[in-house]
Amino acid sequence: DWSSDVCSSDLADWWKQAVVYQVYPRSFKDSDGDGLGDIAGVSEKMDYLRVLGVDAVWLSPFYPSELADG
Q: Which of 31-40, 43-52, 60-69 has the lowest mean pLDDT?
């Protein structure tokens, strides 16, 4: 059992040594061909991100927008 080899404080600090990959879903991967990336596209690439050594994915906020952010 791996948990007996790692103390709880090490588990709480996992992020200090983690590889975190930030994804903006709208531009990451288009899964349905509409020209915009989507969550399904991010899901399709999870195995690829794992092979790269990514420990966590940070999704940038996404919401409907007229792209008039100034």
A: 60-69
H or E element, residue 22: strand 20-23
- Which residue from 63, 61, 57 is spatially nearest to 22, judged by alpha carbons? 57
Q: Which of 1-10, 19-28, 59-68 has the highest mean pLDDT?
A: 19-28
Q: Which helix (H) or strand (E) holds 42?
A: helix 39-44
Phi/psi at 41 (5° precision): -65, -40
First-to-last alpha carbon distance for the chain, in angstroms, is 53
d(CA 23, CA 58): 6
Considering the entire predicted model, what is its pTM? 0.68
Q: Give the up-direction half-sphere exposure of residue 16: CA atoms within 13 A in the CB hemisphere.
A: 5
